[in-house]
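This part of the workshop introduces the protein records we will be handling. The structure tokens are whole numbers drawn from a learned vocabulary of backbone shapes. The record below serves as our worked example for the rest of this section.

===
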Amino acid sequence: MSKDSAGLRKRKGQAKEKRQGSEGDELPGVEPTTSATLNALIYFLVFCAVGGVIYIASPELIKGLVLEFLGIEAEAEADYYSGASLVPNWWVADVEKRDAVVNAFKWAWHAYERDAMGDDEYHPISGKGTNLTSAGGIGYTVVDSIDTMLLMGEPLAEEYKRARSWVADKLQFDCDANFNTFETTIRVLGGLLTAYHLSGEDTMYIRKAVDLADRILPAFETPAGLPMSLINLAQRRGSLDKDNYNLISTAEAATLQLEFKDLAELTGNEVYWEKVENVMRVIKKARMPAGLASIFLSPNDGQFVQSAIRLGSRGDSYYEYLLKQWLQTNQTEDVYREAGPQLGMYDDAMNAIHNHLIQKSITGNFIYTAELIPERSGPGGEVSWRLTPKQDHLACFIGGSLMLGAVTSGALISPVSIPPKMSELTDQGKRDWKSGVELVRTCWNTHDTATGLAPEIVHFRIKSDGMDQMMGSTAPHDWYIKGARRGEFPPYDARYMLRPETVESLFLAYRLTGDARYREWGWSIFRSIEKHCKVETGGYATVVNVDEVPVRLEDKMETFLMSETLKYLYLLFADEEILPLSQYVLNTEAHPLPIFTPNIHTGFS
């Protein structure tokens, strides 16, 4: 691995100030009263000198002591925003940047519409579309993108009309093939529901959503009530995924709830609600001792199966939806929040993440989320957990999510200030806010590559890794792309596949703080996408190695580019009236669903 291929820059450590004090001695030949006065003067000067040194090293410490002495509460948020550029009118759109994102969406959509309208996926270099099954597709890209057009408004009015006509006239789900239950729910069902809400309640979308949801329901027919990974939409029959050893992904099972609950509220059909809420009941009952969730569950007894614990793939959106389910139902479901002596599922999980997964890098003091890998050892095959300093780009949702949780579940008042005052937050809220801010900063730091784009997976340095001995001055200082050696074909870890998680957190962080740096970081990421991912004939493609310039591109434009990445960038630069966080919660595919007080009550504890 070379210094260039690791995509790292040297970062300076924090120097610690040595603080010294001295005592003045009594001077001979001086009268006692004069000596006492002189001693007092010397003590005062020493006190001022020491205080000055401490103030230079830690001004907030001195400020806090002074305010405490005066009886004024010190606000801890200064730790994160002193010297930061808070935008006076933060809720106003940055029109130039917002419109640049709109043009990027048009560049992607027009290429897809020209070459592959109606196909599930698009390949911009070859100018072709493909479907997910041999039996045909279900309009993944169209339905996943349509609410972004509605949000962008008049500039996409004609494109929206054509997309709506395709959904109304050509979208059908009678496909005799297996589709992924989770992906179909978050992308297609979620897209239809959001199109209904944002279009002024166009009932065409609800009819399509009900048809699709009814075809998905048989996936829940397992002994534990957990949804099978695959669903044949024509035969209405679920099946387990052999590639996952017939187990059920925790994130996939626990990331259907927002969509089915919204549909239940709209239609009054309680079956939708009961199916997905039972999944949460099963998971709560199966709680692992530490409060974390491994990435696989058994479809038979609903228990966690010994497998990795992480905030990346197959784990991420489980944690995301613990908060969002509580927000979606207007904070009425106490099972997700602290209720009496028993911690709610969200509070329990956030405590566990802080206790077991959040780590700090050895040089730059960046906090990150590690993984726990189970290992058997000893004569009895005892299980131990190995902490691995690996973080998926997918895990970058957690920074913004923690900040959102801090000002809602961790708030003492509602609404909190922007940015929040620490006096407005509980102890857990303060902790989660600070962790969220730092995790956003870490994810932004992983864009420190040759392209300015973050890799799919990074590993962080630990003291025992021995890299300094092996590599000397070329050893990475904080994080690196594993296996990205010069002259070899780049590993999967090195790619950037147009993922949205960092810009998702930047959007939330900006809305909750008004801090200009989040817009600046988002603009930098957007410019890198434009420079390195844009295809000359239309569309955007995956970068094979983020630390290689000129780039090599893979012929694929993921649907979440238009559904999530460009949507979050648009929202970052749009005014606050577009999707206020007090009125909407976004599903894991960035489809916004309205917050409501449920008419259906099937709560569990």
